[in-house]
Write a structure and sequence with these properties.
The chain has 279 residues and is α+β, with helices and mostly antiparallel strands. It has a 6-stranded antiparallel beta barrel with strand order 1-2-3-6-5-4. The chain has a 6-stranded antiparallel barrel with strand order 7-8-9-12-11-10. The longest helix has 24 residues. A hairpin with a 4-residue loop joins β1 and β2. It is built from 5 helices and 12 strands. The N and C termini lie far apart (78 Å). 23% of the residues lie in helices and 38% in strands.
């Protein structure tokens, strides 16, 4: 009987060790659980933007002015705290950096025979954190090629998410927390899972993007994609229109680069940004 018990213990220990080794081989956290997602959820914010576009156009005998207002609802993630500021990562088109579609829409207001001679864009941002508190925010740095933006607001008392030091591996399981079609309420944010599929160049004017089998919809722009350790490996900025179960994301390398540049601006111009947030 003693010998049989020893064999059972050895077999059980081997199976447990094998499970851990298998999980490590695909870079999964064997101790990952819903508590990691619940913690990460508190670092995801709702962003509402109001972009005012004023443009002047001219024809052969007149000059006229016009304006548009574009309202957006999107997602963002708290990724840093610096003194009394909280730094949030989101998509550049959320920050008012016009994408190809928005510029095409504006140009549609210019009739044949007219010429666009000036264009002024102003975006106001408001942050809603998980418990419903609201904060004004300002853009620090936005990059069109990667559709990535860093914004700042007054200190939000929630943890900052860590940025992963490397890309996910193909087939690795990932998780997304965001606001599809603006679905959000205090303490309620939708969560999704999927797999990392690789990287593509989807448009000549844009940098390469990571592709994930995570469903996407308007409102999820700026939402973080995380690995099983709760680290940010990507940020959704686009989705395939004809198949919205594939989302396009900034790479973790792009995110680190944009965030590092944004943080240099925050550190060198802290008083300027702090003053701007008072108004």
């Amino acid at each position: 009987m003693r010998l049989q018990k020893s064999k059972k213990l050895i077999i059980s220990a081997f199976l447990f060790s094998f499970a851990l080794v298998t999980a490590c081989c695909v870079h999964q956290n064997p101790f990952f659980g819903s508590h990691t997602l619940r913690k990460a959820k508190k670092s995801v914010v709702k962003i509402e933007g109001l972009t005012t576009v004023k443009f002047t156009k001219t024809s052969s005998n007149s000059i006229s002015e016009a304006s548009l207002e574009l309202r957006t609802t999107a997602s963002g993630a708290i990724v840093k705290h610096y003194k009394d500021l909280t730094i949030i990562l989101t998509a550049a088109h959320v920050c008012g950096l016009m994408g190809d579609q928005q510029l095409t829409m504006i140009k549609s207001f210019v009739n044949p025979g007219e010429k666009l001679i000036s264009l002024a864009i102003d975006t106001k941002l408001q942050i809603f954190e998980v418990e419903g508190r609201t904060f004004n925010a300002i853009q620090i740095y936005a990059q069109r090629r990667t559709d990535t933006c860093v914004i700042a607001t007054n200190k939000i008392s929630q943890n900052a998410l860590d940025i992963a030091g490397k890309e996910a591996e193909i087939g690795e399981e990932v998780f997304n927390i965001g606001l599809p079609n603006g679905i959000w309420s205090p303490n309620f944010i939708p969560m999704f899972d999927g797999r990392y599929l690789g990287q593509i160049y989807f448009r000549p004017s844009r940098a390469k993007a990571s592709v994930y089998s995570v469903p996407g919809a308007p409102g999820q722009s700026g939402s973080p994609i995380m690995n099983s350790y709760g680290q940010v490996v990507g940020m959704i900025h686009s989705v395939y229109r004809r198949y919205n179960h594939l989302s396009l994301s900034s790479t973790s390398e792009q995110i680190r680069s944009v965030l590092n540049y944004g943080m240099k601006k925050v550190e060198s111009q802290y008083e300027k940004y702090k003053k701007a947030l008072r108004y």
